[in-house]
Amino acid sequence: MNLEALCKEAGLDFYDDELVSENAKKIYRVYVMKKGGVNLDDCARLSEILSPLFDVEPPVNGEYFLEVSSPGLERKLTKLDHFKKSINELVKITTNEKEKLKAKIISVEDENITLENLENQEKITLNFNDIKKARTFIQW
């Protein structure tokens, strides 16, 4: 089943999915994005598309609950694709060498992510594999 194509059908961009356990319940979450932001109607529309398909071909074994959600303004970047979908956003990064930096994502080419350091406006390029943790953030 192609989640990306099904999201597009609902006018949304697939961001990520995860299976979590909360209060002894399995929750299968599908995160989506859209220019201008995701609203409740978008989530309901995609849920209506996915539910009957998942009844036939469940995404996980056993009983679960389906949730469709926006990844939020501040979200983890765990895949190269997440960086591509977050160009021009601010990000906090911890490298494998424990170096921490705050930067703006300028571009993503192959596995190289070009950033503008917020402290000194210098452009730096990091390889995706050198990043231990990354998450977007909002500067208020």
From TrEMBL:
InterPro entries: Ribosome_maturation_RimP (IPR003728), RimP_C (IPR028998), RimP_C_sf (IPR036847), RimP_N (IPR028989), RimP_N_sf (IPR035956). It comes from the Bacteria. GO terms for biological process: ribosomal small subunit assembly; translation. It is found in: Cytoplasm. GO terms for cellular component: cytosol. Keywords: Coiled coil, Cytoplasm, Ribosome biogenesis. The lineage of its organism: Bacteria, Pseudomonadati, Campylobacterota, Epsilonproteobacteria, Campylobacterales. Belongs to the RimP family. Residues 3-74 form the Ribosome maturation factor RimP N-terminal domain. Residues 84-121 form a coiled coil. Required for maturation of 30S ribosomal subunits. This is Ribosome maturation factor RimP. It holds the Pfam family DUF150_C. It comes from Campylobacter novaezeelandiae. Gene3D superfamilies: Ribosome maturation factor RimP, C-terminal domain, RimP-like superfamily, N-terminal. Residues 77-140 form the Ribosome maturation factor RimP C-terminal domain.
